[in-house]
Amino acid sequence: MTSIVSICNLALSNIGKDNISSISDPEPEARACNQFYEHVRDMLLQAYPWRWAGKTVSLAEVANDKPGAWGYAYQRPTDCLKVRYVRPEYSEQDIDLADAKLDAFGVMHEIERDRIYTDISPALLRYTYRVTDPTKFPPLFVEALAWHLSVRLAMPLTRDPKVRAECFTIANGMQATAQMQDANEERESSDAASDLVESRD
Fold first, then answer.
1. Could you tell me which residues come within 8 angstroms of residue 139 by beta carbon, excluding any fewer than 6 positions away?
2. In terms of C-beta density within 10 A (0-12 exposed, 13-18 middle, 19 or more buried), how is residue 32 classed?
3. What is the mean pLDDT of residues 15-30?
């Protein structure tokens, strides 16, 4: 089962370092993993709209401190790493809307600190959330994350810029592969849904 420690050990092995048993250990390898892991994870989550890291929620309205510019203000979810789009609500009976591509319903909005401003009410938010459970990471994402973590670990643990440069090249390649796989899976899911709709006609 994938864990934070197993991802850190993949990253450490990429730069020729020994495994750790916990990121709270006193060894330099564990301390470096503890320092960089969450930052690298969140960075990679933000870098691409991963299908499995998307969440849609109904926004909670708050006091609007920009009434001259926007009709409504909403609280940005605390686990929101990146806003993808804001859209109006629709019911399950709205077949045409439900079957359409969701981001087609993105509406104008502004993000400032922990608030999201828009002119619709109620409003739904589609966003990338902070996925903290590593068992939810697909295998290729794990590989990309481990290599990106290796980039951060390379200098403090090896002091070798060549090792860091090599990790950086591999990390970018693994990220591109993971993104391609995620995009292909989304297309395959859409194709399956289209086939199901056609079979009903």
1. none
2. buried
3. 97
Helix, strand, coil distribution of the chain in percent, nearest 5: 50, 15, 30
pLDDT one-digit tens code per residue, 112-130: 999 999 999 999 999 999 9
Q: Residue 98: phi, psi to the nearest 5?
A: -65, -35
| Residue 19 banded pLDDT, cuts 50, 70, 90 | very high
Instruction: Give, as one character, the DSSP assignment of residue 78.
Output: T
Contact 15, 146 (CB under 8 A): no
CA dist., res. 47 & res. 7, Å (int): 19
Domain boundaries, the chain: 4-47+133-200, 52-129
**What's the pLDDT score for residue 106?**
79
- Beginning with the edge strand found earlier in the chain, give each strand of the sheet holding 80-88 in spatial order: 54-58, 123-129, 80-88
Residues 6+ apart with CB under 8 A from 54: 84, 126, 127, 128, 129
Kindly report the backbone phi and psi dihedral angles of residue 45, in degrees, each rounded to the nearest multiple of 5, phi listed first: -65, -40
Q: Are strands 72-75 and 123-129 parallel, antiparallel or unpaired?
A: unpaired
